[in-house]
Amino acid sequence: MKKKNKKTKKIVIFSIVAILVIGVVSFLIFNGSAECSPGEDKCDGSIYFICQDENFVSQGEIPGKCGVAEEQWKETFYRFSENVCSAVSIYPDDKTVNDYLTLEECQENVEIVTEEVYQEDANETLCGSGWVTGNCPGDINDGYWNTFGSTGGPSQTAYYYATYIKPAGAESSSYWKVKDMAGTTNVNIIPECFIGTKIEFRLRVNAGPSQFYVRWDCKDINSGNWYQLRSENEGSNYRAYEEAMVWIIVK
Predict the structure, then answer these.
(1) The predicted structure's pLDDT at residue 6
(2) Model pLDDT for residues 17-66, shown as the tens digit of each residue
(3) Is the pLDDT of residue 1 over 80?
(4) Per-residue pLDDT at 126
(5) What's the confidence (pLDDT) of residue 159?
(6) Taking a C-beta distance cutoff of 8 angstroms, is the pair 213, 206 a contact?
(7) pLDDT tier at 111 (50, 70, 90 boundaries)?
(8) CATH classification of 75-110 is 4.10.410, yes or no?
(9) Rounded to an integer, what distance in angstroms lies between the CA atom of residue 140 and that of residue 148?
(10) Has residue 196 got a pLDDT over 90?
């Protein structure tokens, strides 16, 4: 009986050892064929690899991996060139000192270029009563700055109306050029009269009995109110010579 037990023990030990050997060999064979573990990655030059099914699989060049620069997207900037701001679509790395994030920033560099445009004849004119014959129409709107108009007699007020159509680009710094008995003057136009597409002016020459004056007015086309821009009074010398418009236009 003792010999039989010893033989049985040897068989059991041998079986255990065999199982362990087979397990170790299988482990080595199994792991020896695995190139990588889940979650593992690597670089080969600029090529990025990730572990899939225990093998490294190339992902190509990936921005931000293996020394490859982060991918950039084109953005809109405003480029200042030849005194003009224009929208451009470029990569941020290509931005120059003349490229701005906003149009407002870019336009701070723009130099406003203007020109003066002289308009002698109004687009529309209207003569009221009270003028000496030949003065209106005639002397006060004939384009000659040495001829003048006055009322036909004492205690009279003569009216003249001139309407100008605003050209494109006209600035509020445009002015009304007038001449009366005090001389030639550039009259500033108030904002209330510069709205809309046209400007309406009025000339009044008054011959007493208590006052003698020449007044130059403009009209608020929204309210219909008239505003006095200039008034001259030199005794009985009540004369109006000429008027014209000088436009300040942005080129």
Answers:
(1) 57
(2) 556 656 555 555 555 568 898 989 999 999 999 999 889 999 998 888 99
(3) no
(4) 97
(5) 95
(6) yes
(7) very high
(8) yes
(9) 6
(10) yes
CA dihedral 136, 141, 143, 148 (to 10 degrees): 60
**202, 164 contact by CB (below 8 A):** no
Residue type, 59: Q
What letter represents residue 96's amino acid? T
The structure tokens listed for 172 are: 């509020």
Closest to 63 (Cα-Cα) out of 74, 73, 53? 73
C-alpha 86/C-alpha 80 separation (Å) is 7
Domain ranges, ordered by start, for the chain: 41-71, 75-110, 115-250
Query: Using H for helix, E for strand and C for coil, what is the string for the chain?
Result: CHHHHHHHHHHHHHHHHHHHHHHHHHHHHHHHHCCCCCCCEEEECCEEEEEECCEEEECCCCCCCCCCCCCCCCEEEEEEECCEEEEEEECHHHCCCCEECCHHHHHCCCCCCEEEEEECCCCEEEECCCECCCECCEHHHCCCCCCCECECCCCCEEEEEEEEECCCCECCCCEEEEEECCEEEEEECCHHHCCCCEEEEEEEEEECCCCEEEEEEEECCCCCCEEEEEEECCCCCCCEEEEEEEEEEEC
Decide: 229 and 247 in contact? Cβ < 8 Å.
no
pLDDT digits (tens, 9 = 90+) for 158-189: 999 999 999 999 999 999 999 999 999 999 99
